Amino acid sequence: MLLDVSTAFTRPGERIPFRHEVTIPPQAIFGETIAFPEPAVFEGTLMLEDHSLLLEGRFQAEARGSCAYCLAPASYQVDVPFDEVFLHVDKLSQTVPDHTGEEEQMTFQGKEVDLSQLALTLAVLDLPMRLVCADCSEEQAQESPDNTHACQKETPQVHPFSALQQLLTKDQEV
Fold first, then answer.
1. How far apart are CA 81 and CA 57, in angstroms?
2. Rounded to 5 degrees, what are φ and ψ at 137?
3. What three-state secondary structure class fits 82?
4. What is the mean pLDDT of residues 123-134?
5. Which residue has the higher pLDDT, 103 or 127?
6. Which residues pair with 76 in a beta bridge?
């Protein structure tokens, strides 16, 4: 579904409140499928200035997947601010006004804007590296910092410059 911005064309330079819902399809991220069961919501203001449409506000969505520790269902609330600029493309010439240095500028035609790509980008970039259910996050909070996992005990401590130190040692022996 596209966001109707026709009121911004009739009132340029004026901030107009909006609310828009976007459906995000399930995404495969790091081998896990993350679902967005409810529509994501954009809430904020829009304003048309010259050939630019300015959108700012908050983006909210719920992401669901499996817990990284116990595989139980886990969810995460995406709640991020956004401030984006879309350039209006002229239908007749299919050209964007010259804005040098802006390689990946978002554009729109007519009086509607597709926010699906922006929604996907905001949602995925805000996700944690792994989803954790409520039970496992409580267990992690109760663990003391002295506790180490088995995988940490097996690996020797590696310093960031140990490879450089080995090269220096080898050069001195030659």
1. 6
2. -70, -35
3. strand
4. 92
5. 127
6. 63
